[in-house]
Amino acid sequence: MSFKGKYQVERQENLEAFMKLLGATDEMIEQFKDIKVITEVEENGDHFKMTDIMGSNVRVVAFTIGQESEVDGAGGEKVKVFATRQGNKVKLTMPTMECILEMTDKNTLVSTTTAGTVVHKRISKRI
Known about the structure:
The protein is mainly β. The chain contains 2 helices and 10 strands, in the order E-H-H-E-E-E-E-E-E-E-E-E.
């Protein structure tokens, strides 16, 4: 199943705990709660480019399945990521967290990020 497309967040689970773990202030968390993140996924063979649009902030993550890539982390620092794919799931392994992207059906993208004991889930629908 292809990930290619544009998706908008419908709901999130455990956002506040996840953002606190990343060092966000209460003010930042309140501002982010109301933003409907739009994610655009480009998929060309094993190469992915994901663009998250969060209000006026844009974050681009590009990676290739089976290779280590360097991406901008949530705090703007460079982070090494290794990507693998199994069917409708892409797993991104980083030094301090793991993210699984899954197409649960042709219109639903679920992103589950685990950092230590904190699990953040973002459910997005194709737009």
